[in-house]
Structures are given as C-alpha cells and as structure tokens.
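User: Show me a protein chain along with its predicted structure.
Assistant: Here is one chain, sequence first, then structure tokens.
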Amino acid sequence: MEKKCFTITKRIAKHGNQAIIVIPRLIEDSLKPGTIVEVKIEVLTVVPKLYI
C-alpha cells in the first residue's frame, strides 16, 4: 500500500466538552474508519482566554 501524506492547517473546533479537528472531505476517502494514522500537532497560535 502506498503511503499518503497530507498537511492541513486547522482551527480546533468545539463539540460539547471536547476539542476536535474536522478532517476535510477532500481526504475523507483516504481516512476510512479503522485506518491508523500518525498525528503531529504543532501549536501555531494560542487563543486568549477571552474566546474560550
């Protein structure tokens, strides 16, 4: 199986009490349930407490 790499820059979303990252539909076909992925998170900016 060929290794696929994607780089996406996303804003963290809120779903109830959980912070989530929404995966774009463009790469949805490559990420079926059960697929194992490596996720590296680099924090680019920190949101002030005012917005949390």
